[in-house]
């Protein structure tokens, strides 16, 4: 965990296996798939979180603590599988902006690409960066064709004018350009520090074994506090 309190929550959304968890790792150095079923199946099931502090020196943005601290963000890694849409909506409720991942080696749009973009539109998330991932797996011509498919798909949507950044999350190619774009396109929102505090529960974990008697069911908040301001 970073020492700085995150100023902004940024969600990573998109179709299953388009690289959301890999990009979260490339941006933060943290692998967010930790649940046993996630590790077994190789997909994100629960919402994953990774806090990361960005710094800037003469060479650009970095997460190594070099230069001046820019800000600390919380990345929300959303599931891409069709059966886990409720988890995505829970995460979207706390997002201030979003990164929409689209794989360069698949047709656009894939089912959850369409559904996740619709969810961002419904909830009212307007600060969006589109990422064309896996450019290392396609030729230059295929990458251009995929880019035009993305532009066509985004027409008339909340992300129509969003920047599209080509990257390879696996090879960590162009991550610095993406980091700069995120800082420019997803600003830290003004917070209401005067009204009564509200708390959104984005995820929970059932620690009870199947068939546990109702009088033996357990569960609690492990830590933290809710304070105004």
SSE topology:
Blueprint: E1 8-14, H1 20-28, H2 36-41, E2 48-57, E3 60-62, E4 68-77, H3 85-92, E5 97-103, H4 111-123, E6 128-133, H5 140-154, E7 164-166, H6 175-185
Parallel strand pairs: 1-4, 1-5, 5-6, 6-7
Antiparallel strand pairs: 2-3, 2-4
Helix pairs in contact: 3-4
In short:
This protein is α/β, with parallel strands linked by helices and 229 residues long.
Please supply descriptive tags for the structure shown above.
229 residues, alpha/beta, Rossmann fold, 7 strands, globular
Radius of gyration: 18 Å
Roughly how many Å apart are the termini?
A: 21 Å
CATH topology: Rossmann fold
Superfamily (CATH H level) name: P-loop containing nucleotide triphosphate hydrolases
> What is the number of helical segments per DSSP (H or I, 4+ residues)?
6
Q: Mean pLDDT across all residues, rounded? A: 83
Provide the structure class.
alpha/beta
Major sheet = 7 strands, mixed
Low-confidence stretches: 33-45
Helix-strand pattern: EHHEEEHEHEHEH
Task: Explain what you see.
The chain has 229 residues and is an alpha/beta fold. The protein has a single domain (8-216), classed as 3-Layer(aba) Sandwich (Rossmann fold). It has six helices and seven strands. Strands 3-2-4-1-5-6-7 form a seven-stranded mixed beta sheet, with helices on both faces. The model is unreliable at 33-45 (pLDDT under 50).
